[in-house]
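Field log, afternoon session.

UNIT: design team B
ACTIVITY: writing a sequence onto a fixed backbone
BACKBONE:
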C-alpha cells in the first residue's frame, strides 16, 4: 500500500492514537522554536495539525502534507496562526532554495520512503543558519532492538518504519550539523534533535 493511500485511510483515526500520548513531547520539542522576531517556518509533514497548539503565534507557517485527508483535519486547528496549508511531497518540496528560516519535522523521517532525501530537501529550502527541529523514533547505530527491527518491514507498509537510524540520515546530509540530541520518550526511542544549516 502506498504511503499516500495508507495515511488517507488512517486520517480519521490518527488523532485518537497520537494526540494524547505525544502532546507533552510535542510541546517540549516546540518550546525551542524562537519567539521573536517573526520568521517563516515550514511544518514538514503537518499531518492533522497536532503541533499547531504549541506553535508561537508570531511566525508565518507553511504546513505541508502528502495527503489531502490529513490537511482537511489540520484546517480547523489553524485559527490563531498565520498558516498556509500545502499538499506536497517531503521528498520533493515545492519551495525555492533558502526560502524558510526554520523547519519542523515531527514524526515524518521514520515514515517517508527515503528519510535522507527528505532531510536533504529540508536543508535545501532553509536559509544558512536555519534550524531543523526533529522529533521522531530512531534507533542508534548498533542498537540491538530485535523486536523493532523484526516488525519494521510490516509496520513500514502500513504506517511507519521502526528501524530508522538517525545517524545514518545525518551523515548523508552534510549541509546540516547536529546541535542537540536528547531523549524525549520511551527510553530514548523518541528523540528531540536540533540541526543547523551551515553558512
Amino acid at each position: 500500500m502506498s504511503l499516500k493511500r495508507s495515511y488517507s485511510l488512517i486520517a480519521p483515526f490518527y488523532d485518537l492514537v497520537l494526540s494524547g500520548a505525544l502532546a507533552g513531547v510535542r510541546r517540549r520539542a516546540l518550546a525551542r522554536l524562537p519567539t521573536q522576531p517573526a520568521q517563516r517556518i515550514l511544518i514538514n509533514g503537518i499531518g492533522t495539525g497536532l503541533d499547531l497548539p504549541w506553535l508561537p503565534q508570531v511566525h508565518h507557517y507553511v504546513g505541508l502534507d502528502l495527503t489531502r485527508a490529513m490537511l482537511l483535519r489540520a484546517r480547523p486547528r489553524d485559527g490563531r496562526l498565520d498558516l498556509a496549508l500545502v499538499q506536497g511531497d517531503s521528498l520533493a518540496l515545492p519551495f525555492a532554495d533558502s526560502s524558510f528560516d526554520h523547519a519542523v519535522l515531527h514524526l515524518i523521517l521514520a515514515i517517508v520512503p527515503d528519510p535522507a532525501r527528505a532531510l536533504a530537501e529540508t536543508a535545501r529550502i532553509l536559509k544558512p543558519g536555519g534550524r531543523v527541529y526533529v522529533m521522531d523514533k530512531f534507533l542508534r547505530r548498533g542498537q540491538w532492538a530485535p523486536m523493532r527491527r523484526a516488525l519494521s518491514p510490516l509496520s513500514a507498509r502500513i504506517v511507519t518504519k521502526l528501524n530508522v537510524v538517525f545517524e545514518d540520515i545525518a551523515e548523508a546530509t552534510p549541509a546540516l550539523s547536529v546541535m542537540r540530541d536528547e531523549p524525549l520518550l520511551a527510553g530514548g526511542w523518541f528523540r528531540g534533535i536540533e540541526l543547523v544549516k551551515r553558512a
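LOG NOTE: The chain has one domain: 3-197.
NEXT ACTIVITY: expression trials, pending approval
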